[in-house]
């Protein structure tokens, strides 16, 4: 048989019959030695059949003909085919082809894990619908000022939401509620209304003293019955403050002092006894309050206050906000279906959830989050509310573990019409109905504070799954950790709390957020001077880095000069940069571990500072592009965390909201000119030995410019560094520097 070049193809039949591979290779080599290796030679099926009998090219160098043809065929067809496998022989012209390509092994991509309270483990986060994430967050009960406990929860969830949305690129739909119908709101609204009426009547001193004594009697009983040490201490403080304010008024009345002096003592006592009198007035007159607008006025005021606080903290608003008062018809329908499904019952105009019936169902389980707390009557009664735990109310239940879905309204309470008579929603049902209406039978994430796990969230789960007849209303339950104040428990009911407004008077929203970022979102955070000092130092550390990079970037270079040759230092810093980015990504995948992220960012900045210091010591300019890339990355991460409020291109904004970009861009060229002029003047003054001019130059740097929020940093043999810094920060630095100098002077003397 001849090939396309006219050469006679070998007869392989006798060769193929040789069983020993070495002998077969020897025979093949002898046959091939009579033929020349021709580039244009076309492979025949006989060639392929012969060579696929060999597992590898022979190692014997004398059999080079076989080795050469084996590699030739392997290059054209790939590895030799096994028996019974189809060979990839094509109509080849004998031309060389590209060798087979194999993809790199790569590394397993890191997946986001979140701590799920339903399992008490970190679980891989898998949304139910592609990249879309449905998220419901329990909002505040608005009856008083928002405090740092609220900030703990809502800043933490804001960070998590931003990370999921802006870092992991999930399409997050975030829903939050406002609880504006609740036992606490009803009671506080009545108390405020009745106390204001009492105050407007301007009671005589004798009448006020009589009323305070009357109010102290039930208060003393309550104090004696209280077993909780923190609550008892709080009640004792109130009692002591009232007694201290009572004595001056009693003496003033006995001494028949002037009206002005008596009135002053009356005002002091009214203020100190406000809580005492409000509680007493409510217990005696609360049932006579019938104006429903009283119950809507209070939550409307505090809701507005809450939104202003969230804006001040740079917390993103929810995509949709629900108010209980606007969802009463949906709540009624929700309760009715639970009853229809056999998990609720009507009793004396109220509707209760049958926990025993639900728990006995094969497809349901009660107490998913905190099963060990089921039956905790103290927690259950706190969940029912102060107005709903009277003996007659508790007797309406089939089991003490049952909870109210709908409460029959008593005199002095707001009410809405429903199939069971006039009433109002229970606390737990509110979130279930609102979330179910917007997010359906199953949501990806439900969030709230750690203290809401039982009974609130466990009851939410039960009644929602009773409504939808499923077992997966929430896929991932996230709970933020407690907040303590200098190691002590924080509680609004104990009057041991710091309002968000008061916190913002001491520290900026960024500093508070940095403090939260430096701790795990699910663990207890202690709000203390030490915690905030760490956040302040971290902010200062980052800000100095950004200011130094900005100064380096202002150094003029031509268009080609911006691309500088990298040495070992740049290559090492760049490697560290990418290593830190990898570590930060792993930390974010690990339950959004911002604490580790902040540590990695600090380490990266420290490496940059060492690099800049080394270049400065060698009188060499640092690589602008590399430092800019690192600074931009850090800025990007801080923006994701919400720690950079403005649309700042690099670093922290300067000059307050809405002014940062224009301020820096506008004033920096003029400050640069001033710096260069000052450098020139100082040089002449040193040469001409004019100390007065040098003193004026120092005064400009140390006394005048700090008042304007400008820092000049002089370095021997190098240009002055110009930085825009917060004015108060500079004044504080100046004061510390002066104190240090004075102490050194005293030691020297």
UniProtKB/TrEMBL annotation:
Main location per the UniProt record: cytoplasm
Key word Transmembrane present: no
tRNA synthetases class I catalytic domain span: 127-535
GO molecular function, one term: ATP binding
UniProt xrefs under InterPro entries: Cys-tRNA-ligase, Cys-tRNA/MSH_ligase, Glutathione-S-Trfase_C_sf, Rossmann-like_a/b/a_fold, tRNA-synt_1_cat_dom, tRNAsynth_Ia_anticodon-bd
Gene Ontology biological process terms in this record: cysteinyl-tRNA aminoacylation
Keywords: Aminoacyl-tRNA synthetase, ATP-binding, Cytoplasm, Ligase, Metal-binding, Nucleotide-binding, Protein biosynthesis, Zinc
Keyword Aminoacyl-tRNA synthetase belongs to the record: yes
Localization, UniProt: Cytoplasm
Pfam families given in the database record: tRNA-synt_1e
GO annotations of cellular component type: cytoplasm
Domain of life: Eukaryota
EC number, UniProt record: 6.1.1.16
Catalytic activity, reaction form: tRNA(Cys) + L-cysteine + ATP = L-cysteinyl-tRNA(Cys) + AMP + diphosphate
Swiss-Prot/TrEMBL cofactor(s): Zn(2+)
Complexes and interactors: Homodimer.
Record's function text: Catalyzes the ATP-dependent ligation of cysteine to tRNA(Cys).
UniProt-listed PANTHER family: CYSTEINE--TRNA LIGASE, CYTOPLASMIC (PTHR10890:SF3), CYSTEINYL-TRNA SYNTHETASE (PTHR10890)
Record protein name field: Cysteine--tRNA ligase, cytoplasmic
Organism of this sequence: Pan troglodytes
Species classification: Eukaryota, Metazoa, Chordata, Craniata, Vertebrata
Gene this chain is encoded by: CARS1
């Amino acid at each position: 048989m001849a090939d396309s070049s006219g050469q006679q193809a070998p007869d392989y039949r006798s060769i193929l019959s040789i069983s020993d591979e070495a002998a077969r290779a020897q025979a093949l080599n002898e046959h091939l030695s009579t033929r020349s290796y021709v580039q244009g030679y076309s492979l025949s099926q006989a060639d392929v059949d012969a060579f696929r009998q060999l597992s590898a090219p022979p190692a014997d160098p004398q059999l080079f003909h076989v080795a050469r043809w084996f590699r030739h065929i392997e290059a054209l067809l790939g590895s030799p085919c096994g028996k019974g496998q189809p060979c990839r022989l094509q109509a080849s012209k004998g031309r060389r082809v590209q060798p087979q390509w194999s993809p790199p092994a790569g590394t397993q991509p890191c997946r986001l894990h979140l701590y799920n309270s339903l399992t008490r483990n970190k679980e891989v986060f898998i949304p139910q619908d592609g990249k879309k994430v449905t998220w419901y967050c329990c909002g505040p009960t608005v009856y008083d000022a928002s405090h740092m406990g609220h900030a703990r929860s809502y800043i933490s969830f804001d960070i998590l939401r931003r990370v999921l949305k802006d870092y992991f690129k999930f399409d997050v739909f975030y829903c939050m509620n406002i609880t504006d119908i609740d036992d606490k709101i009803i009671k506080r609204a009545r108390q405020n209304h009745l106390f204001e009426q009492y105050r407007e009547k301007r009671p005589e001193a004798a009448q006020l003293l009589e009323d305070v004594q009357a109010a102290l009697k039930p208060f003393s009983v309550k104090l004696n019955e209280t077993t909780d040490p923190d609550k008892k201490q709080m009640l004792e403080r109130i009692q002591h403050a009232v007694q201290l304010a009572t004595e001056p008024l009693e003496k003033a009345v006995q001494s028949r002092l002037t009206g002005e002096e008596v009135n002053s003592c009356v005002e002091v006592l009214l203020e100190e006894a406000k809580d005492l009198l409000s509680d007493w007035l409510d217990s005696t007159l609360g049932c006579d309050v019938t104006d429903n607008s009283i119950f809507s006025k209070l939550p409307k005021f505090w809701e507005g206050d809450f939104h202003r606080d969230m804006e001040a903290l740079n917390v993103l608003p929810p995509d949709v906000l629900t108010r209980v008062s606007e969802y009463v018809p949906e709540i009624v329908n929700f309760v009715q279906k639970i009853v229809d499904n056999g998990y609720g019952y009507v009793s004396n105009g109220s509707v209760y959830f049958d926990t025993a019936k639900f728990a006995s169902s094969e497809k349901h389980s009660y107490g998913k989050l905190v099963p060990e707390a089921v039956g905790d009557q103290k927690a259950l009664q706190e969940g029912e509310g102060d107005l709903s735990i009277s003996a007659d109310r508790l007797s309406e239940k089939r089991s003490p573990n049952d909870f109210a879905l709908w409460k029959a309204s008593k005199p002095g309470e707001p009410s809405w019409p429903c199939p069971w008579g006039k009433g109002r929603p229970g606390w737990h049902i509110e979130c279930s109905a609102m979330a179910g209406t917007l997010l359906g039978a199953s949501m990806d994430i439900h969030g709230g504070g750690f203290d809401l796990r039982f009974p609130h969230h466990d009851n939410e789960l039960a009644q929602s799954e009773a409504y939808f007849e499923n077992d997966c209303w929430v896929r991932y339950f996230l709970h933020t950790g407690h907040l303590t104040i200098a190691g002590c428990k924080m509680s609004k009911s104990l009057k041991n709390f710091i309002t968000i407004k008061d916190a913002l008077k001491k520290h900026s929203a960024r500093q508070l957020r940095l403090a939260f970022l430096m701790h795990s979102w699910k663990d207890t955070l202690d709000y203390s001077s030490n915690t905030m000092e760490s956040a302040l130092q971290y902010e200062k550390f980052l800000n100095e880095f950004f200011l130094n990079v900005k100064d380096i970037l202002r150094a003029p270079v031509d268009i080609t000069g911006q691309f500088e040759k990298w040495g070992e230092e740049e290559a090492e810093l760049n490697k560290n940069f990418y290593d830190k980015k990898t570590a930060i990504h792993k930390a974010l995948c690990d339950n959004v571990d911002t604490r580790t992220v902040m540590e990695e960012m600090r380490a990266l900045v420290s490496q940059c500072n060492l690099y800049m210091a080394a270049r400065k010591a060698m009188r060499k300019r640092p690589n602008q592009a590399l430092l800019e890339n690192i600074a931009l990355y850090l800025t990007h991460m801080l923006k994701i965390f919400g720690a950079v409020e403005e649309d700042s291109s690099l670093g922290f904004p300067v000059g307050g909201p809405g002014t940062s970009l224009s301020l820096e861009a506008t004033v920096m060229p003029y400050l640069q000119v001033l710096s260069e002029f000052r450098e020139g003047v100082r040089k002449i003054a040193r040469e001409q030995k004019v100390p007065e001019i040098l003193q004026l130059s120092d005064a400009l740097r140390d006394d005048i410019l700090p008042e304007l929020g400008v820092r000049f940093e002089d370095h021997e043999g190098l240009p002055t560094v110009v930085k825009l810094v917060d004015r108060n920060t500079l004044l504080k630095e100046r004061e510390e520097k002066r104190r240090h100098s004075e102490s050194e002077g005293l030691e020297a003397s």
